[in-house]
Amino acid sequence: MKNLRSNSLLKILSTLFVCTALSAAFISCDPVVESGFSTKAEALAALNGTFAGSYESYTIDVDNSTFDAGSYSYAGDNMTIDFTSDDFTEGYIYIKYTRSYETSSTEPEDVDSWTAVYIWTNNSDNTDVKYSEPEDSSNYTKSVSYYYRFSSEAPDVGKYYALSFKELSTSSISLSGAYKYGGATSTETLDEAKNEFTIDNGYYAGYSELVKQ
Questions:
Q1: Residue by residue, what is the 3-state secondary structure of 40-58?
Q2: Rounded to the nearest 10 degrees, how much is the dihedral formed by the CA atoms of 88, 92, 94, 98?
Q3: What's CA 33's distance to the chain center, in Å?
Q4: Full-prediction pTM beyond 0.85?
Q5: 3-state secondary structure 77-94
């Protein structure tokens, strides 16, 4: 009886050992998922293309060194890409504006190519200003606050701008255009753009999560 118990215990222990060994083998065979890229060329290939979110779309043409945020937004050429992480998933995109944002406080001659931004001012209290039409607008006066457009004639055209990117993969990217209240909208040279439009200088508050199309 004692030998039977010993043999049974040995069989159980042997079975457990085999199962554990098989489990370890299966686990070790699972592919290791790594983020990032081994070379700059791989990262540039991933960066090349059109990326879109819910309300925006950006085309990055690495071969032709151009960037386009859509016909109703800005665009640029002379694109330069600087990677700032060892795995090539983060960095900056610099462009020379070919189309940019401009505003006018008065009605332009070619007003049809501009978009008007309206405000509603309370007739009884001119400090009460609404930026969307009130439910009851009977006591408000509607007027144009300013006009805006994106054009090749804007003051920033021919100057440099920057975007920051992170979490670059073969299928997605997080992208942010340089902006801060009171900050620069462009620079005269590429070197000035690299010095001005940095994360440390507070230009990138939020990023859009975009999917490659």
A1: HHHHHHHHCEEEECCCCEE
A2: 100
A3: 24
A4: no
A5: EEEEEEECCCCCCCEEEE
